[in-house]
């Protein structure tokens, strides 16, 4: 005979009265086994999902590193060969200068014509590469972003802060000033 005050543990760890019938005890054990199997199956699913997510993360990290490396390679090549098209467009200018220097008994007129043709080639090469002249006309409003004032000219008869003369042309490349135009400016 069992003591009714004695409590025996069940499979799930909860205490149960000693007078529980064997059928109830087997049913509780079966329910516990089913819960355990369900929990283990869920744990396996979570482990599989974790492994999949870990693999996806590692693949994504590798892809990011590959993209970064390819971008660095492309940047390196772009820096290395950025001047290539510009140099290519200057080669005809160099050829013209060499051809002009090869002529031993050229007249001053021929030299001038050759120099003018070479200058046109050079300007064309610069324009193809988006290097544009900054040469403001007299009377143009002074722009400190594109012009550099060398001196102020009093009594020029022009409105104050306007360009009187260009002493040296400026140049810009892709809307960025390489060298401002050196100008004289009308004083007030």
- Gap between N and C termini, in Å? 123 Å
Strand order of the largest sheet: 3-6-7
Shape: elongated
Rg result: 44 Å
Strand content: 15-25%
Overall structural class, as computed from helix and strand content, comes to alpha+beta
Helices, by number, come to: 3
Low confidence ranges = none
**Helix content percent band:** 40-55%
Largest sheet: 3 strands, antiparallel
State the main characteristics.
single chain; 3 helices; 53% helix; elongated; alpha+beta; three-stranded antiparallel sheet; 188 residues; 20% strand; three-stranded mixed sheet
Provide the fold topology.
Blueprint: E1 7-9, E2 15-17, H1 22-81, H2 84-102, H3 108-128, E3 131-134, E4 147-153, E5 163-168, E6 170-173, E7 176-179, E8 181-186
Parallel strand pairs: 4-8
Antiparallel strand pairs: 1-2, 3-6, 5-8, 6-7
Helix pairs in contact: 2-3
Your description of this structure?
The model has no long low-confidence stretch (mean pLDDT 88). A hairpin with a 2-residue loop joins strand 6 and strand 7. The protein is built from three helices and eight strands. The chain is of the alpha+beta class. The strands form three sheets. It has a three-stranded antiparallel β-sheet. It has a three-stranded mixed β-sheet with strand order 4-8-5, with no helix packed on it. It has helices spanning 22-81, 84-102, 108-128, and strands spanning 7-9, 15-17, 131-134, 147-153, 163-168, 170-173, 176-179, 181-186. 5% of the residues are buried.
């Amino acid at each position: 005979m069992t003591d009714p005050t004695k409590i025996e543990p069940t499979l799930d760890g909860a205490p149960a009265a000693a007078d529980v019938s064997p059928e109830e005890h087997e049913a509780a054990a079966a329910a516990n086994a089913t819960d355990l199997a369900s929990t283990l199956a869920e744990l396996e699913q979570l482990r599989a999902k974790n492994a999949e997510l870990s693999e996806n993360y590692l693949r994504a990290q590798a892809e990011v590193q590959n993209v970064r490396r390819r971008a660095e390679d492309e940047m390196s090549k772009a820096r290395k060969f950025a001047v290539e098209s510009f140099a290519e467009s200057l080669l005809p200018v160099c050829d013209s200068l060499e051809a002009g220097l090869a002529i031993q008994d050229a007249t001053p007129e021929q030299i001038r014509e050759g120099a003018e043709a070479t200058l046109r080639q050079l300007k064309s090469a610069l324009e193809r590469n988006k290097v544009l002249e900054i040469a403001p006309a007299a009377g143009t409003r002074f722009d400190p972003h594109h012009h550099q004032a060398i001196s102020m000219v009093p009594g020029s008869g022009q409105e104050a802060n306007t360009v009187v003369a260009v002493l040296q042309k400026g140049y810009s490349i892709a809307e960025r000033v390489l060298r401002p135009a050196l100008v004289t400016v009308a004083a007030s």
